Amino acid sequence: MDTRYSNQPVTAKATDDQERAEGNSNEPCLSPSRPSPPRRPLKRLRVFRGMAVVAILAVVSAWLVLHSKGVRSPGSDEPAQPVSIPVVAGIVEKRDVPIYLDGIGTVQAFNTVTVSARVDGEVKKVAFTEGQDVRAGELLAQIDDGPYQAAYDQAVARKGLDEAQLANARLNMTREADLFAKKAVSTQERDTQQALVNQLDATVKADAAAIVSAKVQLDYTKIIAPIAGRTGIRLVDQGNIVHAVDRTGVVVLTQLQPISLIFTLPEQNLGAIKEQMAGAGMLSVHAVDRDSQTALDEGTLSVIDNQIDTATGTIRLKATFPNVKLNLWPGQFVNARLLLTVRKDGLVVPASVVQRGPQGTFAFVIRNDDTVEIRLVKVGPIEQGRALIESGLQAGERVVVDGQYKLQGGSHVRSDNALPSVGPTSANPR
């Protein structure tokens, strides 16, 4: 008998459709002519899987809690042993700490001279080599001195002529004086002769001045070094005509020993610098290369500029260096480190000890029971991997140098390393 024409109640079919809806919606729908399979075993399997996942998560959480707080053996009365976190430890030490003010500066020659010709003429000789160190008064170039030598000789000859005329006039004056005493000549004749003597005397003096002037012009044909220094690139070659009005010059001469350094510091440091100069006199300045590691030279602060740059809020300072090894060169950019003072018996730790958090800087201090304490600290200057502690720590305390990322307050730590020292501290920036 065909079931499609069965007189079964409609409620049975609705029940089957509801069970199929509660099952997997992705499964193909069964034909109304076939009875749907039971769904209760599939539901139970899903419940068992959920319970297994919850159980696994509970076991893992319990294991993590036990190992973070320490575990003990079942049935044992011994207290739980805390897990020790390995760290690198250090000791707070007392050191003399130099306090530096850092700025960027430019090296300048102590003296710079553009040596030029002072008379016109042809350059007959260039007596220096480019890059040569010369002494003051040493010959650098020679200008043709023929015309100036002739002018000098003429001035000397003219003076001789006038001196001869002066001598003759003085003899005539002596005769006129004898005749005037005998009333043989008038007063006018005597005064006229006296005026001639005075005139020739002035002429001789003018000739002497002309000789000096000609000698100066003759000497100017020799271009000499006005200062001791090093020559630069030659600006005029032999055979060229030079003039006294030329601005190019023959060579630029720079003095390298000693040498100067111009650098700037914030205007807020001016008061401290003036105070230290009033008490200690000259302050030491270290010139350091741009890598902040290589020390170039050590000098002294010589000048504080007389005004503050309002555009940048900085003050210019000038230091002088002996530059014995010629490590400093004009135009070179270097780091200037002004040694302001030396803090006696300052508390020093490695710079990595200092950590930063929402409440400021802090450090992990290791207590006697090998647990750590978070302590706020006030940090001063940090110099060459060493931090000066203003407050918060005491000499001899142990602090965590490395491994802080695993720590929190009360954590147990284990330090297997030899406690590092912060090393010697000196005023040398190296």
Overview of the molecule:
With 430 residues, the chain is an alpha+beta fold. It has 4 domains: 62 residues, no CATH class; 77 residues, conserved putative lor/sdh protein from methanococcus maripaludis s2 fold; 123 residues; 89 residues, Elongation Factor Tu (Ef-tu), domain 3, CATH 2.40.30.170. It contains 5 helices and 21 strands. The strands form 4 sheets. It has a 6-stranded antiparallel barrel. Helix 3 packs antiparallel against helix 4. The N terminus and C terminus are likely disordered.
How large, in whole angstroms, is the Cα Rg?
50 Å
Instruction: Assign the structural class, choosing from mainly alpha, mainly beta, alpha/beta, alpha+beta, or little secondary structure.
Output: alpha+beta
> Any idea how many domains?
4
Main sheet record: 6 strands, antiparallel, barrel
Give a count of the beta strands, DSSP E runs of length 2 or more. 21
Percent range for helical residues? 25-40%
| Shape by Cα distribution | elongated
| Helix run count | 5
In terms of per-residue confidence, which ranges show pLDDT below 50 for 5 or more consecutive residues? 1-36, 69-77, 418-430
Instruction: Indicate the mean pLDDT.
Output: 82
Main-sheet strand order equals 3-10-13-12-11-14
Helix-strand pattern, N to C? HHEEEEEEHHEEEEHEEEEEEEEEEE
Query: N-to-C terminal Cα separation, in Å?
Result: 108 Å
Beta-strand portion reads 25-35%
